[in-house]
Amino acid sequence: MTAAELLSGHNVSRETLGRLEKYEALLRKWNPTINLVSRSTLDQVWQRHFVDSAQIFDLADSNANHWADLGAGGGFPGLIVAILAADRKRALDVTLVESDQRKAAFLMTAAREIGVTTRTVVDRIEMIPPLHADILSARALAPLDKLLEFAERHLRPGGQALFPKGASYSDEVCQALEKWRFSHEEISSVTDDSAVILSIRDIERV
Question: 119, 162, 179, 205: most buried by Cβ count inside 10 Å?
């Protein structure tokens, strides 16, 4: 399947496909040194990382102004969010939080070379001032109860958290409900039959 076919549901422009292809090339160049993504997934980067991130973008409130991606790593979903927002001419501020200096250097380099505007914060999530984000995302970062702790600090009141989770997501939800109250929706992943994206709002400590 071609790159265009994988993202056909997003109707992305030729310019955006070019940005994604450049992104793929940068990942392949940097990954042997920094290990941005699992080496075994590089040959399926469009399905495993690009489309997987694009589905998170599709679930976000369309009127959001500020998206913060925690533990941004190789840029998933944060850089894909910035690319798709630019494609749709949406005014969306994207903040990438990454404590690893080398990964942060990749994120800044990739954004510049791809031609999108993002802000990279190089520090630990719990140490930075509250971000007051409209949308908060984190992919393969921490258990749900820890993510809710981050959301309590960095998500504005009324905001939306989008956390992709694997097959054990129901166990994580049950464990989190021992410490937190929240409303949530479980959206089936388009890239993994056993995974979901949790859309979470109204987060409060028990």
Answer: 162
Percentage of the chain modeled with pLDDT above 90: 85
User: Is residue 2 predicted with pLDDT exceeding 90?
Assistant: no
pLDDT-based confidence at residue 43 (cuts at 50, 70, 90): confident
Concatenate the DSSP letters of all residues of the chain into one string: --HHHHTGGGT--HHHHHHHHHHHHHHHHHHHHH--S-GGGGGGHIIIIIIHHHHHHHTS-TT--EEEEET-TTTTTHHHHHHHHHHTT---EEEEE---HHHHHHHHHHHHHHT---EEE-S-TTTSPP--EEEEEESSSS-HHHHHHHHHHHEEEEEEEEEEE-TTHHHHHHHHTTTEEEEEEEEE-SS-TT-EEEEEEEEEE-
pTM score above 0.85: yes
Q: What is the pLDDT of residues 143-187, one digit of tens each?
A: 999 999 999 999 999 999 999 999 999 999 999 999 999 999 999
How many structural domains are present in the chain?
1
Q: Domain range for residue 124?
A: 3-205
Summarised one tens digit per residue, pLDDT across range 68-78 is: 999 999 999 99
Coil/strand/helix, residue 145: helix
Q: If you ran DSSP here, which 8-state letter would residue 122 be given?
A: -
> What is the CATH number for 196?
3.40.50.150
